[in-house]
Amino acid sequence: MTLSQRTGVNMNEDLKVNLSRLPRECVDAGDLKNISADIPSQVPVVEPEPELVVNPWDIVLCTSGTLISCENAIVVLIIFHNPSLRAPMFLLIGSLALADLLAGIGLVVNFVFAYLLQSEATKLLTIGLIVASFSASVCSLLAITVDRYLSLYYALTYHSERTVTFTYIMLVLLWGTSICLGLLPVLGWNCLRDESSCSVVRPLTKNNTAILSICFLFTFALMFQLYIQICKIVMRHAHQIALQHHFLATSHYVTTRKGVSTLAIILGTFAACWMPFTLYSLIADYTYPSIYTYATLLPATYNSIINPVIYAFRNQEIQKALCLICCGCVPPALSQRARCPSDV
Q1: What are phi and psi of 284, to 5 degrees?
Q2: Cα(27)–Cα(49) distance, integer angstroms
Q3: Rounded to whole angstroms, how far apart are CA atoms 120 and 187?
Q4: Residue 203: cis peptide before it, omega within 30 degrees of 0
Q5: Rounded to an integer, what is the distance from CA 230 to the centroid of its chain?
Q6: Residue 156 burial (CB < 10 Å; 0-12/13-18/19+)?
Q7: What is the pLDDT confidence band of residue 259, given thresholds at 50, 70 and 90?
Q8: Percentage of the chain surpassing pLDDT 90?
Q9: Whole-angstrom Cα distance, residue 263 to residue 132?
Q10: Which of 93, 242, 253, 263 has the most CB atoms at less than 10 Å from its CB?
Q11: What are the two backbone dihedrals, phi and then psi, of residue 56, each rounded to the nearest 5 degrees?
């Protein structure tokens, strides 16, 4: 008797033993013969492993995070390597760039962990980093607005040690608050154990998103009020100068109009980027289609792309520092032909 025949006999005997445990009416001799005849011909089928499918929205978010990281890393390096950029305004701009840099890194790390290293710990850490960094970004924008208001309202005493101390206090408060918000999911405020409590962004709970949304709306209202006061101060100063120097009235009117337009662009950009996701997260829950979450969250990431352009690269001191760095990277022969504007 061959090995295959012995195997068939053994399988038949095992099958008879197993089937003998069933009620007699459930098994008859004909069925037993048919099953015994079919077993040797059965071949185990190995199902192919499911292919890794990447969500296109996640690719877009990862690309946005990469651009955010590269752009804001330049601003952080410029401010860090230039001792002359230590004024309160530059400290706040550096805080904003650092927060946006961490937000970009968080988006990239979230993409990597979501498809390569899936675990509850990585989900909590990445969502905590993203929440803390974006919260620090929004709070830094508020701190910059407060600093601009104080620089106009207390123009004579603004450049003093008191202002520097107040700036450090603001930095400690905004980063402390942001870190506390980022620790909420890690400390247990998550929906990993109760899916019904999930928000539109897992594993954040509805309470998480509600707190963040209300904080954003409060921040936006405060920034809006401060920018209105800034516009009033600028217009009042321009009017006083125009009364003293009638021949400069036209130029001051143009300057004031540009300043008000710039403030409107800053506030409008901030609202356009963050308001869709804020309102959506207040009214939606985890049962809503995820495409709505991606469609509202993506514009919020664009705010971190626009921030360096509005607050950093438009500043003349930062432009000069960036130009000096770029000129230092070019060979001497070429740097003499294309010198920085400050050297011309």
Answers
A1: -105, 165
A2: 36
A3: 13
A4: yes
A5: 29
A6: exposed
A7: low
A8: 37
A9: 26
A10: 93
A11: -60, -35
Mean pLDDT computed over every residue of the chain: 78
Beta bridge partners of 204: 190
Q: Which two tokens stand for residue 329?
A: 């990277």
> Rounded to whole angstroms, how far apart are CA atoms 90 and 143?
12
List domains and CATH numbers for the chain.
Answer: 56-316 (1.20.1070.10)
Q: Six-digit token pair at 77?
A: 């390096």
Torsion of CA 145, 150, 155, 156, to 10 degrees: -150
Task: Name, in order, each residue with C-beta under 8 angstroms of 108's C-beta and a sequence gap of 6 or more.
Answer: 62, 65, 66, 69
Report helix angle 206-244 to 161-183, nearest 10. Answer: 160
Distance between CA atoms of 129 and 109, rounded to whole angstroms?
10
SS3 content of the chain, % helix, strand, coil (to 5): 80, 0, 20
Q: Is 201 exposed, middle or buried (0-12, 13-18, 19+ CB in 10 A)?
A: buried
Give the C-alpha distances (Å, rounded to integers) separating 222 from 1, 163, 227, 277.
91, 20, 9, 19
CA gap 241, 256 in Å, rounded: 11
Segment among 46-50, 86-90, 244-248, 317-321 with least mean pLDDT:
46-50
